[in-house]
Amino acid sequence: TSALRVVGDDAATTAIPNDLQAFWMPFTANRSFKARPRMVARAKDLYYYTPEGKQIIDGTAGLWCSSAGHSRQPIVEAIQKQAAELDFAPTFQFGHPKAFELASRIAALAPGDLDHVFFCNSGSEAADTALKMAIAYWHARGKASKTRLIGRERGYHGVGFGGITVGGIVANRRVYGSMLAGADHLPHTYNREKQAFSKGEPEWGAHLADELERIVALHDASTIAAVMVEPMAGSTGVLPPPVGYLKRLRELCDKHDILLIFDEVITGFGRLGAPFASERYGVIPDLMTFAKGVTNAAAPMGGVVARKHVHDAFMTGPDHVIELFHGYTYSAHPLACAAGLATLDLYRDEGLFERSKALEPVWADAIFSKLKGQAGVLDIRQLGLTAAIDIESWKDAPGKRAYVAMDKAFHDEGIMIRTSGDCLVVTPPFIITENDIAQIADKLSNVIASTAMPS
Ligand code: PLP
């Protein structure tokens, strides 16, 4: 029949359309998904629920973003109240109080003099905003030749042209032409031979930051605006920074008068047991992006935090003139600001960053003791409440084993996990308990075992 199939305890919200074709899904194998959908219709705290009502552990905090768990009441109420009170106001030449309040809260949370917050709606917009700010900063300082952007292999900075230019994921770049002119890349920091099964930051690899010297020698510092890296590369399978690496990058950027940008879209708001990774590592970038956890993902929001010297370089010229020709209709959208304020309150009131920090050793021990040594496990990387498990590929079918593992995890084990090539990635919400952690490790072990041979 062509009627809607209606299941679950709340028919109005759990209807599954039987035509799945119209939605062209992002970063998805559309044909495989539509042949065997992994659908969720409801979420509460640590769990998703399928339209049939089956409980699924959220092993990925959504997409590394629902850190306090789902549909949390204070955030829900804040959004509802805001929608009734002020649904929208432009922030080009006008303002609304919650935008200023949230900016102040984020500035207070950010380390050092990272004091000025520019809002956008996603991590991709945040990355492109930070790159544009860096180039415009040098222009404002009278050094307009400093336009080159340096990223890193295996980096992910979203999907805008700036982000994919400095990013280092071949699949995200291959078919999109020549990118922005003049970018270059540091080498990535992963070496299985030297780092396999390191818990936390690997000892080997700080010297890879020195590759910046080679890039400067090639292009000259007078052409380079900024270096942009994730403190921990997330999307390419959790690559923690080698001990001392980020400090070294900071020193070299200072030496050559190059801005350092940290993309903290994943690492921000507690994922590594501190408000931001820059605090964990005692390294303050000139610009820092954020998104995801700022609203616990209950509303889209991203942004860039700038240090005082970056912001102040723009505050010149006649004071009726716009200082930075950049912004989005929905920059500091009232619903996102309300969600952000309620989220920061929740993180504080429930001590969730501290909880994330306290759980890190429990998490690492559970993952390592359950999976290290299991057949087919090639490496495990872990930092904060993240873990990535490289599994042996099926012959002649790279990525297929992890795809099947992710599908089985959902349908057979009742857990949402992510993949990156033949790597399984888990990044749970901070509200997990020690019991949940043990369950997650068991379920991972089960799907690794059950995908040992192609079926
Ligand atoms: N930067 C980093 C480090 C990310 O991990 C992501 C998303 O995972 C992005 C940027 C892009 O964020 P969005 O998908 O919100 O555009």
UniProtKB/TrEMBL annotation:
InterPro entries: Aminotrans_3 (IPR005814), Aminotrans_3_PPA_site (IPR049704), PyrdxlP-dep_Trfase (IPR015424), PyrdxlP-dep_Trfase_major (IPR015421), PyrdxlP-dep_Trfase_small (IPR015422). Signal peptide: none annotated. Belongs to the class-III pyridoxal-phosphate-dependent aminotransferase family. This is Beta-alanine--pyruvate transaminase. It holds the Pfam family Aminotran_3. Its cofactor is pyridoxal 5'-phosphate. GO terms for biological process: biotin biosynthetic process. GO terms for molecular function: adenosylmethionine-8-amino-7-oxononanoate transaminase activity; pyridoxal phosphate binding. Keywords: Aminotransferase, Pyridoxal phosphate, Pyruvate, Transferase. It comes from the Bacteria. CDD domains: OAT_like. It comes from Phreatobacter oligotrophus.
